[in-house]
Amino acid sequence: MKRRQFVFGMFGAAAVGLCGYRYATGPQAPNLAHLVKVSKTGQALGTTVTITAYHADRKVARDALTEAFEAIERVEQTMSLYRPDSQLSKLNRDGFLANPQASLVQVLETALHLSVQSNGAFDVSIQPLWAAYEAASQQERLPTPTEIKDAKNLVNWQNIELSEEQISLSNKGMALTLNGIAQGYAADVAACALKAHGIEHALIDSGEISTVGVPAHKDNWTIGIKHPREEDAFLGVASFKGRCLATSGDYESHFTDDYEQHHLLDPRSGRSPQELSSVTVAAPTAMEADALSTAVFLMGLEKGKELIERLPNVDALFVDKANHTSHTTNFPIA
């Protein structure tokens, strides 16, 4: 497999789920009321993860939650920027990685395909640029034009060589971050682990939302979509089943108090785009929703909407800097 030759279709295994089957999308079974609700919360990939599962046997549910968190832990062991022994850290340190985990190859294949689809707006090699902003913020300033230019010279997804046997970074000083896709992937593998234990109804919140089946007593999952400017307020409630949700917003981690410069950096300009304040995507998998919400935010409303509308069973909600909202036809907002 050579650069820009990908085994996936539009977004990897999005059509059937990462574990080889479709997430449950049928109508609510009439006997869900007897199921026990079990929840577990932990820390992973720099965020709080909460998983809620429904099953007739409490022990089965607890065992399934344990395995789901172990699956997420394996993702972190492979893809964390902050664990020096992770495969991603080794790749960034050495510029080369032999015998990569299949999961890392899978996520990078999806990321590189989205780089093509977004004309380079989504780029996992953005890490040097983000690091320049982070270093400058420690001095309570923004990076200088020279610092931005130097960092941008290290950012180019086309310089990632990927195969099942090895990954290499063509330019010295390049570094990757999977912060725009790994949380979604982790939510999906957690869903796979739950299904493998017989869980047919569950919600995984890793910052991105992955679902299995439907909640007890309801026909759909309902998730509040955060308002990008009003604390503890919602833009609305998404009511859905058979899809996953992810939001990218300028409020999540910002370098200026006016939200003009934040963690969502355009690799082409070296700065944060100024049109949107948040994008929420509904998609067949959490990995797809996670990556697309970032890509579309960077692409802007017009081009981002064009991309979303080309993809099957994918919709988006957009909020601009003036708090005006718009969404594609089938975005599930109530």
- How can the largest sheet be summarized? 4 strands, antiparallel
What is the helix/strand order? EEHHEHHHEEHEEEEEEHHEE
Amount of helix: 25-40%
What is the terminal separation in angstroms? 44 Å
Please tell me how large the radius of gyration is: 19 Å
Number of strands: 13
The CATH superfamily name of the domain at 87-169 is ApbE-like superfamily
CATH fold-type name of the domain at 87-169: T-fold
Low-confidence stretches: 1-17, 20-30
Structural class based on helices, strands and sheet pairing: alpha+beta
- Mean pLDDT equals 89
- Tell me what the CATH architecture of the domain at 87-169 is: Orthogonal Bundle
Quick structural summary:
The protein is an alpha+beta fold and 334 residues long. It has helices at residues 58-79, 87-94, 102-117, 127-137, 145-152, 182-196, 286-299, 301-310, and strands at 36-44, 47-55, 96-98, 160-162, 166-169, 201-205, 209-212, 221-226, 234-240, 244-249, 276-283, 315-320, 325-327. The strands form 4 sheets. Strands 1-2-6-7 form a 4-stranded antiparallel sheet, covered by helices on one side.
Outline the structure in words.
46% of the residues are buried. It contains 8 helices and 13 strands. It is α+β, with helices and mostly antiparallel strands. A 4-stranded antiparallel β-sheet has the order 1-2-6-7, with helices on one face. Helix content is 31%, strand content 22%. The chain has a domain at 87-169: T-fold, CATH 1.10.3980. The N and C termini lie far apart (44 Å).
